[in-house]
Amino acid sequence: MELNTVLTGGHSQMVLCLGVNAGGQVASGGEGGEVCFWSPDGEIVSQKSFPSRADVNSVCFPPQQGSVVYVSAGEVIELLDIRSPECSQATFAFHNEDVNQITVDPKDGFLAACDDDGLIKVIDLRSHKVLRTLKGHSAICSSVRYHPTVPREIASGGLDCVVHLWETTRASPRTSVNMREVTAAGMEDELMPSPYMVNPPFVHSLDFSPAGDVLACGLESARVQLLGRGGRRDLWPGASLEGHTRGVTQVAFVPNHPGRTQDLLLTAGNDCRMMLWETANITSEDSFLPENSPSITSADKLETIDLTSTKSKIPPAYQSSGSGRERESDKRNQGACSSALKKKKATLSMKHKDKINWLAPSTSVGSVNLVFVADVSEIISVYQWKLA
């Protein structure tokens, strides 16, 4: 992986977020209400400054429309045409606190946005009305993602250390995974303190694999936790990727292209590092919770890991009932569980000059991969690598 070029002149303050459409056009949002649109060759197409000067925390190209982009500035979301962004095509002012991320469903019918109140607003893009407000997080909701092939399915994560899986037809989460308990289960056999134990597992970033069978979670504890998604739209803890030494601020799967046979995951964090992971074998059956784990009943009934909903699904180390002998047996089972979560090494690791705010990967013709990187500066860095 090497630095290809830098994009300059579009921002006067820190760049906070990025988006890339299928045609290679880039949208960038930053502090002070600045948003900039770039051509595939790195030239500025257009710019806009929001009068409110509220930070632009998220930009999102709808999957089926390449020339428009949804942009959040503070608590307001606007639909802009990248060729003439001065006039907004639509405005959605349904949030009371700053919006942290926007996501659009695969059919361009609905938009979901999460905010500092911990709420997720699901907006019907045809009627421009709120379809539903999802209330499940007890702290800031930092990330939200639509499933790439299931229009009504959303994953969300927040600073309450919880990941929820929602159906937008339901007011409550279908499945919930508490990262504190997943982390505790994986640390049973650790003898020395590590970043994975000291820092709380706040959820900073989420992304589904292209097929939607894996959800990657970037955590403040420096860990990337993979969650498997079952056929009945449930989640369960899988392998953890341990390579970062500080909080993981971004996880992003590389878009698929013809000829690629495996998923590639990019991660970045406050340790100023970017890492590329090949997830082909990480998500195999033996990398998920084993049959003897107290958290599930059998290997072929991986229906849900809602570690917060009922006492029976909480790891035994957190349960007060039962004899000492039973608890010792549970600890041995939990140790087997943690050892089964394979610790993989990154395929590539790259040191960046600053802490990273956002990653936006893109695949071009000829198997040349680009990743656009926003950090604490006003410059966007563009890295490339070529697959063998």
TrEMBL record:
Gene3D superfamilies linked: YVTN repeat-like/Quinoprotein amine dehydrogenase
Keyword Phosphoprotein: no
Segments of skewed composition (Polar residues): 312-323
Domain of life of the source: Eukaryota
Biased composition, class Basic and acidic residues, residue ranges: 324-333
UniProtKB keywords: WD repeat
Spans annotated as Disordered: 312-338
Pfam families in the record: WD40 (PF00400)
WD repeats mapped onto the chain: 92-133, 134-176, 241-287
Family annotation (InterPro entries): WD40/YVTN_repeat-like_dom_sf, WD40_repeat_dom_sf, WD40_rpt, WDR53
PANTHER family in the record: WD REPEAT-CONTAINING PROTEIN 53 (PTHR44666:SF1)
Listed name of the protein: WD repeat-containing protein 53-like
Species whose genome carries this gene: Acanthaster planci (Crown-of-thorns starfish)
